């Protein structure tokens, strides 16, 4: 595949297929996360002691729903401006057109979820459309209600959000013989019910047992 980029140009047929495959993989990953919400997402943020001070970034169900909804609107183009070689992709967050501009480095990334992967990059870029930034000290202009709730629960940058999926929710063992051997999951594009994130969620939502008192018989 020729990865020579042209300013503000559409992708070739082969490039479009790779980008759309990455989008579909990412959609399946987000859908799987929602299906496993009881294990790896926070359904009721009010049950988490805030500010949360755990070992990995935790995400609300609303955030994952927003990512999935926003990703559905995304289209792809070649980069339209000169950028440094380490850039993978970029967006214009304030634009009504949900376009992810892909740079040459994108095409060499792994197609499956991991650090430095196509799904991780798409999650990173889509989060810009939701108001997330590269730094926590940068104000969120016009942030949504869901963004405000997430940042109260567990402040996220684009990078920590990407890591939440590519590292903390991801499978700890490889996919071989049609399954992930850490949990038995057969869907290639999925997250792990036995991941570090699931352990973190159990710890964060743990409540003390309520002792039952025996009523006296009068």
From TrEMBL:
Domain of life: Eukaryota
First and last residue of the signal peptide: none
Matches recorded under InterPro entries: Lys_MEP, MetalloPept_cat_dom_sf
GO MF, any single term: metalloendopeptidase activity
Residue span, Lysine-specific metallo-endopeptidase domain: 73-131
Pfam families membership: Aspzincin_M35 (PF14521)
Residue ranges of the TM segments: none
Name of the featured protein: Lysine-specific metallo-endopeptidase domain-containing protein
Native species: Xenopus laevis
